[in-house]
Amino acid sequence: MHWLERAASERRVGDSFALVANALTALHAPDELTALARRAVDDEVRHQGLSFLVAQRFFGHPIAPPARLPFAPPAHRNASPSLRHRLHILGQCALNETSATAVLEASLAEATGALAKSALRELLADEVEHARIGWGFLGTLSAEERAAVQPWLFALVHGNMRTWRDTERAYPSDDSLVAHGAISRSLLERALQLALRDLIIPGFKQLGFDTAEIERWAQAGAPTDGSFVPQETA
Ligand SMILES: [Fe+2]
Ligand SMILES: [Fe+2]
Q1: pLDDT for 42-70, tens place per residue?
Q2: Which of 28, 57, 217, 230 has its CA 20 to 30 A from that of 158?
Q3: 228 belongs to a structural domain
Q4: How many angstroms does the Cα of residue 31 sit away from the middle of ligand 2?
Q5: How many A from CA of 216 to the centre of ligand 1?
Q6: Which residue range(s) make up the domain with 102?
Q7: Which tens digit of pLDDT belongs to each residue from 127-158?
Q8: The model's pTM
């Protein structure tokens, strides 16, 4: 059931934000960003509670909370500790939360149920802020730090897309469930493509990253089935 799955994944994102907050602290990032990331840990726990509440309302009777999902941060082997911190912040905030924002916006556009709409709105307001942590942080990188991130960029963007697509979900058998906030395959795909084209690529470009390879991949439909061979890999 969608809202129950969402509750579990929100909690896992909370674990990821604990990592992001520690990474920002270790990198001496601006206090404002670090404080936002610390607050995001609480936001995600609140998102879990809200999603679980919505799930319970739909079930119409008390249900057991979902099992806690294991959180394993991306290893980013071959990256120095400071580069690894930067890659974690980029991956969770600039990529994952930006994609989450697009998915929530798409869901909200199709939702008609009052309960789903108000819950989606609340989640969306926070995820927009969480994405800003990533973009704000990337804006503080020196030219040298940006150059160190650049060779990883394609793999990170590709990996984020693959994770969104490959995550196991109970896709709705009936499109009417999308009205209550469920994510259909087509909604997800549309939102991910939009996030890539209209938010992620322009965002990186504006910050001075080379996005040629990502754009070539996006133009090919952003495949994550191994059919696209990047010219350069990290
Ligand atoms: Fe969330
Ligand atoms: Fe978030």
Answers
A1: 999 999 999 999 999 999 999 999 999 99
A2: 28
A3: no
A4: 19
A5: 30
A6: 2-62+81-219
A7: 999 999 999 999 999 999 999 999 999 999 99
A8: 0.95
